[in-house]
Amino acid sequence: MSTLTADNAQDALTAADRCDACGAQAYVRVLLPAGELLFCAHHARKHSEKLASVATHIQDESDRLHESDENPQD
User: Fold this and answer.
1) For residue 48, is it left (φ>0), alpha (ψ between -120 and 50) or beta?
2) Are 6 and 64 in contact (CB under 8 A)?
3) In sequence order, what DSSP letters do the residues of 16-44 get, joined into one string?
4) Most CB atoms within 10 A, among 11, 29, 39, 65?
5) Strands across the sheet with 2-5, in order?
6) What was the pLDDT predicted at 16?
7) What is the DSSP secondary structure assignment for residue 67, as one 8-state letter?
8) Tens digit of pLDDT for each residue in 4-56?
């Protein structure tokens, strides 16, 4: 299993991508042998151990959640 980040992913997640568990904005794409699942940061963390054992790749863009914290506006 490999981890993809926003820097090395082919297709960045957008606001239109929704968590398969709750419908919130997805920040994590999990590629499986038979498809993909999208998760918000909360559900990706909640299921991270199991996902890591079955995923072929995990694209984690949850660091985008903290971008506004690093660049506060005046």
Assistant:
1) alpha
2) yes
3) T-B-TTT-SBP-EEEEETTEEEEE-HHHH
4) 39
5) 2-5, 57-60, 28-32, 35-39
6) 97
7) H
8) 555 555 689 999 999 999 999 999 999 999 999 999 999 999 999 999 999 99
Joined together, the tokens standing for residue 48 give: 């991270």
Q: Tokens standing for 64?
A: 């985008």
Cβ contacts of residue 56 below 8 Å, gap of 6+? Answer: 1, 2, 31, 32, 33
User: Is residue 6 exposed (0-12), middle (13-18) or buried (19+ Cβ within 10 Å)?
Assistant: middle
Q: What pLDDT sits at residue 11?
A: 87
Q: Is the pTM of this model over 0.85?
A: no
